[in-house]
Design brief:
2 copies of one chain form a homodimer. The longest helix of chain A has 20 residues. By secondary structure, the first copy, chain A, is α+β, with helices and mostly antiparallel strands. The first copy, chain A, has 2 domains: 284 residues, BirA Bifunctional Protein, domain 2 (2-Layer Sandwich); 89 residues, Rossmann fold, CATH 3.40.50.800. In chain A, α1 runs antiparallel to α4 and α5 packs antiparallel against α10. The first copy, chain A, has a 9-stranded mixed sheet with strand order 1-5-6-12-11-10-7-9-8, sandwiched between helices. Chain A has a 5-stranded mixed sheet with strand order 14-13-15-16-17, with helices on both faces. A 3-stranded antiparallel sheet of chain A has the order 2-4-3. The radius of gyration of chain A is 28 Å and the shape is elongated.
Chain lengths: 426, 426
Amino acid sequence: MKDVEPEEMNRRLWLYDKIREVVRRYGFQIVEPTTIENLKTLEAKSGPAIRKEIYWFKDKSGRSLGLRFDLTVGIARMIANRYDLPEPIKFATIGGNWRYDEPQFGRYRYFAQWDIEIFGSESPAADAEVISVGADILGNVGLRDFVIRISNRRLTESYLKQVGIRSQIQLEQSLRIIDKIRKEPLDQLRGELKAIKIKEKAINDILSYIALNGPPAKVLDDLSDYDFREENAKKGLNELRILAGELESFGNVSSCVYDLSIVRGIGYYDGIVFEAFDKGGDDVGSIFGGGRYDKLCRIYGKRDLPATGVAGGIERLMISLERANLFPKMRIGAKVFVASVQEGIRSEAIRLAQTLRSSGVSAEVDLKGRNLSKQLEYANSARIPYVIVLGPKEIQTQSVRIKSMETRGEIEASFTELATKLRTLD
Amino acid sequence: MKDVEPEEMNRRLWLYDKIREVVRRYGFQIVEPTTIENLKTLEAKSGPAIRKEIYWFKDKSGRSLGLRFDLTVGIARMIANRYDLPEPIKFATIGGNWRYDEPQFGRYRYFAQWDIEIFGSESPAADAEVISVGADILGNVGLRDFVIRISNRRLTESYLKQVGIRSQIQLEQSLRIIDKIRKEPLDQLRGELKAIKIKEKAINDILSYIALNGPPAKVLDDLSDYDFREENAKKGLNELRILAGELESFGNVSSCVYDLSIVRGIGYYDGIVFEAFDKGGDDVGSIFGGGRYDKLCRIYGKRDLPATGVAGGIERLMISLERANLFPKMRIGAKVFVASVQEGIRSEAIRLAQTLRSSGVSAEVDLKGRNLSKQLEYANSARIPYVIVLGPKEIQTQSVRIKSMETRGEIEASFTELATKLRTLD
């Protein structure tokens, strides 16, 4: 696992602020679930197979514990037995997670996610809101060229059954194969579907179905040619119809397409699902993803609680922002170095630096008892943009020159106006 | 371990911002060391005994790993082999740590700390700067009534040897006993020193020495009566003399006292040491603490690197701030609920909410298809302070009333001035 160095840290902190700004606008409450969970809680969602992918251990009293691998599980556990909170419960969080898998590009063993969840609403309006928050987060950090691909797991599962997939195992296998559509050529998908014994005709039907994509109205029109027989399929289709109108109201429909190949690999999704991609770099995979999981809360609590949410990887988003050059220029370290021409002046330099600091100007002074030229050398290699040299004359006149290390230009400033002048400099 | 609920989360985020504001003013660079370290790295400082106090485990490839138990170790490891960074290297971090011990008041198995470190300066000016950052952090969150108790481990260890403590084991035992001075009565300390076979005369000398405290000038004066014979003692005393002047320059001397009972339990400190206490609640223990550890970096790297730093517990600081009622009032959730009188209006309500959100006003709309009275009930129980009811008339006139849920008062506002008016409301 890796340390976060100063430049990356500045960018992370900027990004976290931008994300929190958006989630707060929508009235989400920010929380953080515990980092260590009982292993049972982590297994509840995906079964004991998850042990292979996470960090888990027995503590000194023999309890099996694990480091959280996502934020949804913790938040669902937090609210599952809270009957006191008015619904919908809207929680958001940003935090680190741990997975024990092979690190890949944009994927690390310790990674951070932003995550928002709405509990207590079955309405596609809630799905539209979480999609809208996702779109606004990307917009708030300056990303414009992205697409949100939306589908409905309920509809897709029903359709798969309708074309002849009978067993739960075969259903899950097919979903996992469909999920690879953006990573593998179609022929390979076809081969994999064949390998799990799906008939030629059904494979053709499935491939035509998952090829449907485009603006919501267009895909809904395509789907009207389908003869869905299961109630669940009709329900799923209706959810997509309502969602299209809601997305229109939220004003984010232009970045949304319906794409029936979107299934989300993980088992717990059961309604509307979606993934967003950065058009400038979809090699990092989806930039956020989510959907509806109405059955998860029952696992942790005593009741069903409809739920929908979205999560995005911080590291992937940072890759997109770096590529598009969207991070603002941020200073690392101080803005000004207050040098002293001789040892006797150093305490005056500290005093002046303290005054600047209390006016909100970041300042450094010599902490190594160096001579003037060594002090300037340090300011230069630490890339501090401005320097003030303090000597007896400056103390007598209560006035200094602010020297730009880049342009070598100088500005005169009295002690009293110094902080104000420094604040206006770039 | 516990989840962080919305109110606490808001306070934490506010506190983190206040801390970062101060460390940036001093030109510190913010970083974050990895959460999981090799067990060897964690043991390097304190020996294998640390295993009993931390979470550690073997990963799937058999490596022994542990969750970080403080931030100093990680930062020291990060810089130990960096020869490219100009010195002094000034790093700061805020982050969670894990310790496997019995939870006590203000002490948890997962706890957060702020931490700043200066590497590369032997000068007491660096110690004065970290003390000053600590004082400014407390000041920046509104705490005024605190005291920073300062001593010098080098001086104290030399003095203990001078009065007859010969072995390293006895030295460490005595330091651990002295460290309990604020928790145990003097008689008990006397008994414990006797139990490790320190002679009556030496115990008297030690107890008089650690009883010295007061303003730096007063304690330095008291110490001038002592006949320190070891070079190390003279060096330590001289560091305290220089530090007093530096604290004066930094303008923080008024909150500092010299207190020779301060030793810091942990093994790696070797020069100036200090602990700060909230006078309004020192039952939580020290509110920050730190000191000089010139030998630690060599353990992780190839060189000696003088170092001094300070760390404070976030949870303890929060207890102090809560007691002194210093947290500002912060809203949890949205500022305004946009209700709709009937289903056909709901999309207009969403549009209006979206406009408010993009103007930076946090807004919520109905996501459950509720009737008007249920919507108002929700806004009330979610403690959203303002409500707008949107009906056909409001849409026609492009104007609404902002209703305060607390005072029941109403303000008229056109759609165009709505965001501005809402922003000015409390």
